[in-house]
Amino acid sequence: MAIVLDMDGVIVDSNPLHVKAWISYNRRLGIDTPEDLMERMYGRRNDEIVRDFFGPRLGAQEAVAHGAAKEALYREMLGPELTARLVPGVREFLQRHAGEPVGLATNAEPANVDFILQGAGLRPYFRVIVDGHQVLHAKPHPEIYLRAAELLQVEPRNCIVFEDSFSGIRAARAAGTRIVGLRTTHQELPGVDLAIDNFLSPALQRWLSEQVPDAP
């Protein structure tokens, strides 16, 4: 069996800071941030979010520039809080599964992935990392999880994905994986095999111990 984790909302409870950074960045440009920001943001790739705010006709270079500026602001906010914002138990969970096929599959920007994994000292636990720039289709398309399974050399049906967003859950389900949902972003997580508050949940290890690989 392989384990594949999303990042925002799974490794680090960063979504509140993403919201704060978008509000601050948009305010600088005189843009009102809609109340449904969170629902429009969670689980999506940055270029999609930028075009949602600035319009679908925004050029590719402009979209990249806006996204990069907002993410720089986000990392500035996150830096002093990084350790405190790690989802409870995630470090110990990764330590228990050290040496096993563990991957990361996230729509997040590569700079954010490096910042979080290096800053928190978690990079050595991941055998493969797939970010939103390495696939043509972002979540909720299943490509990112299919790619992670391929790199881990494990069939998708024998991958256990940890997700927090609706789009991520749809992507994992479409890829044919097993899914553990983290209630960091939403309390109700339809479509998951197990829902937990964090990695300290006693139900998690019991459930994992019951998982056996499907025959080829």
Task: Tell me about this structure.
With 216 residues, the protein is of the alpha/beta class. It is 44% helix and 12% strand. It has helices at 15-28, 37-41, 46-54, 60-78, 82-85, 90-96, 110-119, 143-152, 166-175, 202-209, and strands at 2-5, 102-106, 128-131, 159-163, 178-182, 194-196. It has a 6-stranded parallel beta sheet, sandwiched between helices. Helix 3 (46-54) packs across helix 4 (60-78). The chain is globular, with a radius of gyration of 17 Å.
Which keywords apply here?
alpha/beta, 216 residues, 6 strands, DNA polymerase, domain 1, single chain, 12% strand, Rossmann fold
Indicate the topology.
Layout: E1 2-5, H1 15-28, H2 37-41, H3 46-54, H4 60-78, H5 82-85, H6 90-96, E2 102-106, H7 110-119, E3 128-131, H8 143-152, E4 159-163, H9 166-175, E5 178-182, E6 194-196, H10 202-209
Parallel strand pairs: 1-2, 1-4, 2-3, 4-5, 5-6
